[in-house]
């Protein structure tokens, strides 16, 4: 079954946003979770550059415009409830603002937080 | 750096929820995205059975209690902003209520929705 895709048909929250998981298309690493509005979804598909909505800045956030750590869209997927997105990406440089490859660098082991990915040399936290 | 983990230190939304990505610990497939409250986070860690908050039913949802399609927790990770979780799981049966392994079975290809994982035999949609 195929249907023309319209970003307006996704289910957004009360702020008009939908969570988007970015996953490395090559090895499956989950890199980050961020948010998109309908405009960001459309921009991502139109340009091939993954674009989120920055909740802190209140504006479209084309990933990598400042850092150079861009995400090229390989494939966008939606879930059965149409209220979550999975974007498979080709990531340039680290996805995390701390310089780590993934934002999910902290694990809970036996009730304790453990950093399982070290920060890059010369950086802390 | 290690710190005792307290579910109350995560950043929940105005409804007291945090998005949780479930990923197959074995092969990295992203299975679903659901939501946890602090109680669900604590229950998941305490029992090793991944437990969400069902927004539609308004109650704790220990995945698989009805379907048998349980998720054993392999590792819980949090992101740099402490406002998203990644749970690595050992999934029994399909994660999706449609019978598919992953909820992310629809992709957008050239502006068209395409189901990239077929429904199980005997089921539709």
- Assembly context of the chains: homodimer
Q: Supply the CATH class of the domain at 8-93 in chain A.
A: Alpha Beta
Order of helices and strands of chain A: EEEHEEEEEE
How many β-strands of chain A, per DSSP? Answer: 9
Q: What structural category do the secondary elements of chain A indicate?
A: mainly beta
Strand order of the largest sheet of chain A: 3-2-7-6
| Shape category of chain A | globular
Note the gap between the termini of chain A: 47 Å
Q: Looking at this structure, what is the CATH superfamily of the domain at 8-93 in chain A?
A: Phosphoribosyl-AMP cyclohydrolase
Give the helix proportion of chain A (percent range).
Answer: under 10%
CATH architecture title of the domain at 8-93 in chain A: Roll
Work out the largest interface and the residue count of each chain.
A-B, 41 and 41 residues
Largest sheet entry of chain A = 4 strands, mixed
Please work out how many helical segments of chain A DSSP would assign: 1
Mean pLDDT of chain A: 95
* CATH fold assignment of the domain at 8-93 in chain A: Ubiquitin-like (UB roll)
Strand content of chain A: 35-45%
Low-confidence stretches of chain A: none
Q: What gyration radius of chain A follows from the Cα positions, in whole Å?
A: 15 Å
Function (chains A, B): Catalyzes the hydrolysis of the adenine ring of phosphoribosyl-AMP.
Subunit structure (chains A, B): Homodimer.
Keywords (chains A, B): Amino-acid biosynthesis, Cytoplasm, Histidine biosynthesis, Hydrolase, Magnesium, Metal-binding, Zinc
Domain Phosphoribosyl-AMP cyclohydrolase (chains A, B): 32-105
């Amino acid at each position: 079954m195929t249907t023309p895709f319209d970003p307006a048909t996704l289910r957004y929250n009360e702020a008009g946003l939908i969570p988007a998981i970015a996953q490395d298309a090559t090895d499956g690493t989950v890199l980050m979770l961020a948010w998109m509005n309908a405009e960001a979804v459309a921009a991502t598909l139109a340009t091939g550059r993954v674009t989120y909505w920055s909740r802190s800045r209140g504006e479209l956030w084309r990933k990598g415009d400042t850092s150079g750590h861009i995400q090229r869209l390989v494939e966008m997927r939606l879930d059965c409830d149409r209220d979550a997105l999975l974007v498979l990406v080709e990531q340039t440089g680290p996805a995390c603002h701390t310089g780590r490859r993934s934002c999910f660098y902290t694990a809970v082991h036996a009730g304790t937080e453990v950093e399982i990915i070290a920060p890059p040399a010369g950086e802390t936290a």
